[in-house]
Amino acid sequence: MKTIAWIGLGFMGNPMSKHMLSAGYIVKGVDIDLAAREGAAKNGVEICATVAEACKGVDAVFTMLPTGAEVKEVLTGPNGVFATIDPNTVVIDCSTIGIENARAVHASAKKACRIFAEAPVSGGTEGAIDASLTFMIGCEDPHVARVKELLAPMGGYIAHAGGPEAGQAAKVVNNLIMGVCVAVNCEATALAERLGLNLKEFFEIATRSTADNWTFRVWNPGVGVVASAPASKGYKAGFKTWLLAKDLSLAMDAGREVGATIATAEAAYAILKNHIDNGGADMDATSLVLSLKDAAEKIVPQKATA
Predict the structure, then answer these.
(1) Are 87 and 114 in contact (CB under 8 A)?
(2) Alpha-carbon distance 7 to 63, whole Å?
(3) Is 298 labeled as catalytic in the residue annotation?
(4) 171, 236, 273, 293: the active-site residue
(5) What per-residue confidence (pLDDT) applies to 227?
(6) Closest CA to 249 of 100, 75, 94
(7) Considering the entire predicted model, what is its pTM?
(8) Angstrom distances, CA of residue 80 to CA of 7, 74, 111, 143, 202
């Protein structure tokens, strides 16, 4: 039976590692958060005290962490993954870390003679729970088949985006679109309420017309519109506001690097940042609608003139 290490057992890592257990893998896990460790242990994950302990003798290592800085520390540090694993162990990072961080980790892996693949995901916690995630692989061709086999228990669609950095490039562009959709969905919902529309009825209209998008259908920002959406659960975080702002900042960084204009991402980032500054950082990203409604209430409506 093959053994894997899983580093990062939070909202995404917990259900993803559970699918690996169901597929017959032995899973050794690490997380700094006690609740995350306890939740994974209930699933059958063998909790380890350190990264080095978890990585000894494993066939593969997965990381699912919030930022590129954490991924680099865990993978490339003196007691990290690359320093601990056997040369034939494959390391797969499923986090969203951006192109520059991916470039640095690939370089460190090459220097250490380690096998590394980036495989960021799309599909949110819903996709992690029901094993329907989309994976975007960036790695050298000889390792693609092995990486796809390891990802299979968790994915609905597994794509080889290209060589090193390509997985993160695909994720950055994907989340640019998603992030802008979240922002405009919140703006539209706040406006719809100000105009007196029934949000449930508008949901039926929008999802059958040109306004339809995944985030509106699954993460609808209107309270009570979609029962499973964070908005209907007090905006309890599925995807935190600061994480979405981070992802948009990665898109902005990528745009600057290649000279691309991405004004919509910059606008979405600005209103998300305002929401973060007003206490919304750890709430679900769709709680942005609350800040937008508060702002609208402070504006005195202007009467139309003939």
Answers:
(1) yes
(2) 5
(3) no
(4) 171
(5) 97
(6) 100
(7) 0.91
(8) 11, 5, 14, 22, 50
